[in-house]
Specification:
Helix content: over 70%
CATH class of the largest domain: Mainly Alpha
Order of helices and strands: HHHHHHHHHHHHHHHHH
CATH superfamily of the largest domain: MFS general substrate transporter like domains
Number of strands: 0
Length: 452
Amino acid sequence: MRKIPHQQLILIIASISVFFEALDIAIINLTMPLIQRGFGLTANSVQWLQTLYVLLYGGLLILGGRLADTVGRKRVFLVASSLFLLTSLGAGLAPSFAWLLGFRGLQGVAAALLMPAALSIVTNAFTDPAARSRAIGVVSAFAAIGSGSGLSVGGLIASGFGWQWVFFINVPVILITLLLAYRYIPNDTPQRAGRVDVGSGLLLTGLITALSYVVHELANWRTQGGLLVGLMVAVVAGSFLFLKRNRTRPVPLIDFPVLRPALTGIGIYVFLGASFTGFLFLISLVLQNDKGMSAAQAGLLLLPFSVLSAVTGKVFIPFLLKRLSVRQIALLGMGCLTASALFLLLDVHLKPNNFFFLLLSMACANGLGIALAYSGLTVLSIQGVAEANHGLVSGVATTAYFFGGGLGLSVLSLVLGSGLAGEPVVGVWPLLLFGLYGGIGVVWLWVSKSST
């Protein structure tokens, strides 16, 4: 039996951990109706399982990246993996919705620590620039495949075994990767002195949460106008406080000059998050509300495109990396997401159960777009950034993804149909917004390419 090279083993450990972390973002979407019925909840209440996870994940990612740089990437990876394992077990055993929501929120905290630490471990294990780009592409592809397969996996597992198993599935795999990481990932010496500014990290999380809530509740401004204005004042004041704290700390949470080479990648991550998170949200509504499918039927329909996402990560991306720049790969991915919105719009208009455009939409977004765009933007974001700051840049970039996803969903919710009297829940305006998110990313990449 051939021995796996040490570098490749580290890549496998990090990739599997990132895959399950990404899987958990989308796996809950088709599962929530079962949880809603199981605990007797309203639709608004059960949505907090996704909202809380995304807000804590996105809000704490920068802090997670900074901890990987200052405390040590292996230490943070082990702690995060342990917390992710325990909270997955706790969520599956939760006796009430309050307990489930609490464990789900802590899962988001664990994911925020895990993602930047895993990427930092990989970038430091591969020192050759070409090998590093390929390794980052592999990790990013696993993340994209996890996100792309979450819908189908969640629908099939929840329908066949119960919603608890969408959490239990994490436990044995994360346990194995945790043991392998302890044994094979080398110890590292933190590359920066000084204490991490945890206060600024928590303040940033609060600002992102408050801003997302304001956008989400804009439709209710007549009844909640005072609260929304108050929150916006708090966001502005908190932003000034954050900038002041960040400027005066010996080790700032965000070293803004460090981010300058990564600004294009980070900025487009916002629109990637809005586009793909919007797709996950809209396709769930189209399949279950407008087309009347069960979670299992929707999961089966999405399954081939999850396989396509895996093929894209395993075969297409390594092939493309030899022929295209990472910017071109990201452009191709954002173009696929934009095309997905067009095909879904055609499906809504052409109606009666013609699945051709629906299938094309799922292929472009779930099978190709997310894998290509995520991989390309991940490599693009860290090009020109010193190794010591890869954890920070990874955290900022992924925070941008979830910030865009949260705001994008909030805006989409303002233009959804009621579903009453034959009106589709997903009409023209949500799909135009979905297309706009991807289109902005395409234009930005094209313009930045022309100016370089």
